Amino acid sequence: MRQILLFCLLIIFPFVLKGQAPFPQKEEINQFDSSKTCIVLEDDQFSAYNPVIRKAVEAYWKITPFEFIDNAGFEARRKNPAYSFITLTQTSFEKDKSKSVFNFINLLEGKKVEKIGLMPEICAVPLSSADEDDLDYSYKLGAILLFMQKHARMISADPSLTGRRYLRYYNKNIPQIPGKLVLLKQSDLAPEIDTPEKIRAFTSNNIKIVSEDEIIKAVNEKAAGTLILHKVGPGKDKASGYCFKMLIGTDDSDMYYYNQHKIDKDNPDGLLALDLKRIIR
User: Fold this and answer.
1) Of 86, 206, 221, 259, whose Cβ has the fewest other Cβ atoms within 10 Å?
2) DSSP string covering 128-196, please?
């Protein structure tokens, strides 16, 4: 079970929201379809997050009209179903002994409920470790926003797909991966597969270790038949915690793989050889 803490810079973590936010009902999905999406910015003129999310939303958000608001605006509007919200939350896991905290990007539907944790959650994607200062996820944010919109359209067409499998639902796309080019950053890989030679020991499929610039180019150009790895973990210096791994298509905005593992001495923070075996099966 994950615990969600709404990110607010002026009043640090005023809400501790225990448990998984509820998935939307059919009527709430319909409300989202006609809503105006409010992007909640940090109340800090020096925020590094604000210009990054502004740029990504302005370039990639197409599904609903949008507006940028502050935390006071969020509080004023969050009970109104005419609005939906993209907001940054910080999430920890009850059984995580490392007490690691992760940034999630959430798409929530407005609802007249007392607790923010009861607002319908259209989509939530792990974004980064809360310890990161360099916004390492920023170059992937466009691809993530495109995926979130595609997910929202999918559950709008078929509300039954809001089931508890959630992002693991997309593992149905694993059989398509062998026909794709998979781009990976070396720093996102476990030591057992962190060179081309080590990867070739597991697969001859088109999996390439590339620079961040090449991944940025693939995202910006919506490169055909290409997947990028979005890896989120507490850092390679942590001996425990969770590591999240996602493969997202740059041309179709689909998710092709989602998994997470508990970090230990045999399973470090990074894509594992076990993941390669799963995606090439």
Assistant:
1) 221
2) EETT-SS-TTGGGHHHHHHHHHHHHHHHHH-GGGGSTTGGGGGGGGGGGGGGSEEEE-GGGB-GGG-SH
CA distances from 216 to 18, 53, 171 (A): 35, 16, 24
- Using a 10 angstrom Cβ sphere, with 0-12 exposed, 13-18 middle and 19 or more buried, the burial of residue 260 is middle
The answer to whether the beta carbons of residues 251 and 225 sit under 8 Å apart is yes
SS3 content of the chain, % helix, strand, coil (to 5): 35, 25, 40
Number of H helices, E strands in the chain: 7, 12
Q: State whether the Cα torsion 77-111-20-137 is positive or negative.
A: negative
Angle at 91 between CA 8 and CA 130, to 5 degrees: 70
Angle ∠(54,253,165) on CA atoms, nearest 5: 105
Contact 103, 129 (CB under 8 A): yes
Would you say 130 and 101 are in contact if contact means Cβ atoms under 8 Å apart? yes
pLDDT tens-place string over residues 148-180: 999 999 999 888 886 545 789 999 999 999 999
Instruction: Report the predicted TM-score, pTM, of the whole model to 2 decimal places.
Output: 0.89
Residue ranges covered by each domain of the chain = 2-162, 171-279
Q: Looking at per-residue confidence, does 16 or 220 come out higher?
A: 220
β 102-109/181-184 pair status: unpaired
Mapping DSSP to helix (H, G, I), strand (E, B) and coil, where does residue 278 land?
helix
Q: Which residues pair with 123 in a beta bridge?
A: 107
